[in-house]
TrEMBL record:
InterPro entries: NFX1_fam, R3H_dom, R3H_dom_sf, R3H_FAP1, Znf_NFX1
Organism: Parathielavia hyrcaniae
Listed Gly residues bias regions: 20-29
Keywords in alphabetical order: Metal-binding, Nucleus, Repeat, Transcription, Transcription regulation, Zinc, Zinc-finger
Keyword Lipoprotein: no
Segments of this protein annotated with the region Disordered: 1-127, 1117-1205
Protein name, as recorded: R3H domain-containing protein
GO molecular function: DNA-binding transcription factor activity, RNA polymerase II-specific; RNA polymerase II transcription regulatory region sequence-specific DNA binding; zinc ion binding
Amino acid sequence: MTDIPATGPSQGGSHRGRGGRSGSGGGRSRAGRRHGPRRSGAPDEGATAALTEPATNGSEPVPAHRDEAANVTSQRREQSGRGRGERGRPGGARRGRGTAGQRSVVASHRGGRGPPPVPGAGAGGGSLPGLNIAAAEFVPGQPVPPPIPQPNLRPSSSVLAKSTAADLPTRIHEDIDRRQYECVICTNEVLRNSKVWSCAICWTVTHLHCVKKWHTNQMKEREEHQGPNRPEGWRCPGCNSTLTEQPGPYRCWCGKDVDPKPIAGLPPHTCGQTCSKARPTCPHQCSLVCHAGPCPPCTLMGPTQSCFCGKHSSTKQCSETDYGSGWSCQEPCGDLLPCGEHYCTLTCHSGLCGSCEVSMPSTCYCGKERREIPCSQRDDVLDSFDHGQLEPAFDSAEPGSSQWFEGSFCCSNTCGRAFNCGHHICQKPCHPQDERAAHCPLSPDVVTHCPCGKTRLDSMPVQPRQACQDPVPHCDKPCHKMLACGHTCPDTCHIGSCQPCTQYVDIKCRCGRTTARSACHQGDVEHPHCFRVCRAQLNCGRHECGERCCSGEKKAAERRKQKRNPNGNVEPEHICLQVCGRQLKCGKHTCQQLCHKGPCMSCPEAIFDDISCACGRTVLQPPQPCGTRPPDCRFRCTRARPCGHPSVEHQCHPDETPCPKCPFLMEKPCICGKRTLKNQPCWFEEGRCGLPCAKKLKCGAHECRKTCHKDGECEDADISGSRCSQPCGKIRKSCEHTCADQCHALYACKEDRPCQSKTFITCPCQRRKQEVRCQATTLHPSPSAESSLKCDDECLRLQRNHQLAEALNVDPSTHTDDRIPYSDTTLKLFRENIKWAQEQERQLRVFAAAPEEKRLRFKPMQAQQRAFLHALAEDFGLDSESQDPDPHRHVCIFKTPRFVSAPPKTLAQCLRIAQAAANLGAGASSIKPRAAAAAASQQPQQQPFNALLLKDPRFGLTVDELDAALAPDLAAASRASGPALTFATSFLPSSDEVLIKATPHLTAAAVATSLAPTPQAVESALSSLRAAVARTVSRLGLARGAVSLCHVDSSPQAVVITRREGDATAGASDGGWSAVASRGSWRRTVNSNKAPTAAAASEQRVPSAFVALRRLEARKKKEEAVEEEKVEEDWLDAVEKQERERSGSEEEEGEARSRSGAEEGVVQGVVDDGVVHEERDGTSEVKQQEEDVQVDDTVSGAPEVAVDG
């Protein structure tokens, strides 16, 4: 590679480049690896041109190498340092990389090479002491005479130019000496001390290590990409010629010396011996000193050389002598031609004279034809007898020889001469004639057998033949003569030629897969072609045969079956003869080889032009392989931006690679022109505001719904006519639905067709609904209104339940049951790691809600975590299994037909319900024995306080003023060590009182870890807060009455105070279903703990009354079905048995119908065919004692009620 020279002078050794590492003793040079300073006798490193210098007396020039032999020994003794090239450092102090006027050879990553140092010059330019053959003799004690001034050998220019010699060897030598020869592989300079290799075709010189690496890469690429048509060998890096000999050791130019040493005064890399290479067109060897490049033409005299005909001879210079073609004297040849009668009349020529073309009058052998033909086309001249067939004129031409003549060719006529019998004639083609007529072949002495040759005539019962004219008798045997087709003649023995064969044979088609029956082809068998198309692959692997009835299809099938090498033993029919034609890597040429497998070879073409980068400062010198990309340039890109902004600094790059985008921000209008967008990158051309286009479409009724776009790109741009693709949207006159037809522009909607919009029809109770089409038309405007659904059994059941809920004052929207759909194992594992378990539950619920998902795979986890997933999947109704061994064992969940839906309650909710049931069970375990409980049951349990009550508030007091005044006290109560509470203030409509209700702040983590605030804790917190609130109310005059505690049951209909402070019977005075709601939470008090024994259960049970609702019909049937009483022998055992049965029935009915009340819980009765199911609110955490309740039978809308107690 080459670049433009560097400008500006550079002092010796101060310029840092890779060229010309000369200068002071510390400077480096790459001219050769040797010790000490440069030899003074070789100022130009052994250039072939002889340099002269003036003699000491100035009278005559003295050759520069005159004192070379004397200086070699002394110079080797003065070596003071080891360097690379001229790395001798006799006394320099600085380290430089160039000299003044240094030239950069490769601007991208190399500097130029400086000139060789001048002998006798030091770092500073002064002379160094050295040996001089003309110096005066040194005499001890005598003054030293002044030194004789030496001529200045420094060249006029510090940079030596490339050689301009006329011959290639001299240019190579001088360029290597001047450090101007570049290796075509690494682009570094080839120096005198470099080990080199030279191509024997293009004479390109490269480094030996470079060409060995090149050869290794070529062979490796050939092994990786083998192909049937790839040429053997490797490519020369200079001319791309195919070479078979791998690069060997370092040799001189002529190849005689291995690892030659540099010789001063001789060309680089020469051995100093005679070249002695044989010239291809000359018998003389090269007599020059070992040199690079081709040998020059021979200047010696060549041998004496005769002309082609041998009549003359001449002697010329060896270079002018044509050893391969010879020379012609331009005289007639005169050699005897092959006919032996005539001589060659051509000018003196090379090679044989050829056939004789002299026309000769000739007669055929039978004498019937006579014509002139070339002498070379005549056959053998034979004597033939004239039996009268020649013309008389011909006989008179040669008197005395009228009976015999010479025939020289064979005509196309038959002989026609009569045999000796005089009855038959000869039917042979033209042949020489004898003097006597031939014996008749039908004579009785010649014909001894019948025509088929199987029976002798003398053995046949026929009269013997007397003359040739007598017919030849034939036998009764078949002829059986072999016909041309290979069959035998089926006819009976006959005279003459056999008839054509009429047999039918089976002939296979060309591919051999089908057989056809046909008449015999008389020996010329032509195989028919079937319609089967051959699908065998050709040897290229890219094309199929495709020929109909291919003869090589069967062989190809056998080859594929044996799995032989696809590139070997390929049938001739399946060799692809197409040209490959694929694009080569260079991108300019196509592969011209026959179609082949594998990648194509590298492009064999070469580029003989400079390859430069985009800016032109980095250049690759020719020759280069075709497809070589421009070199990488280390200089900055100089392209100017069209926008005018400063360019981002980046390296020079090809034109195909764009410059980095302009990063400057600016204001640009959006493509629709409605908005001006700020902070838009300069390179961004299509900024969009995101607003709808809203332009009127061609129909005039609709607007474009597309977001910001270019002009002419509205949604109706591709639609012809005055319509668009949007729905019409006009209101139909028949049904008030919009027209769903495509835009019909100026035409009215077609309301004679039924409306296809969807609407709903419902039953009278509005529970059932069904989606139907409107079907309205102009003639029938409301067909859907005429059709309605009928209420079903479920509607009637819901109506009865709704009536019962209104009678019992139950809100169905806030009522839930306390059933836990999860197993104890699942809840236990959930409590151990709540946060992780909630993530898995959420993922499982998403899987259960997706109908298209059938399998869910979790990531690998520990055994305890997998156990939780298995338990949770079982509760969901899903199948689960663990797969893969540890540490990759994971759980897979599958949906099966038994899966219906996910449980409605989450694990956190069920854990809270279980915790509340456990707390109630702990409270129930502390109840007194049955005897004491019977007396205490008359005193109902008091409900915990959950609100503050302000009596007689100030006139005009608002909720906001009260909240602002009590905010510090309420906030202090929430920050205390007690439970986290939230307060809600409201005025009671029925009395002049203000209610401040406290609600505990519950979280899933608090419930799961048993830290949820209990009602007793809320009551304790309100008791401590009451004093502070009373002081604030009194100080600010917010209310005239006192501040007291109360219990509030809230419902969407009303807020009811069930207990006030100081009112001990507030909870029992209400009675009815409110009492049932307050005690119904004992359903699971025993289930949360271990099941006690029957005796313990009977002791802990508190006397209570249970409501039993049954159908009247069921009671009547029960009363009528009176079983026959048995006679008990021991009446005491019978009484105890009856008491146990009564106690057991009471327990079963209590478990089925008792429900626990909660903090805000209510009891909802759901009626289904006269049976009441009681459920309590699952969020309740209030513990209440059980009390007897009597229910009036006159509840409106309810069936008969029976009270046990």
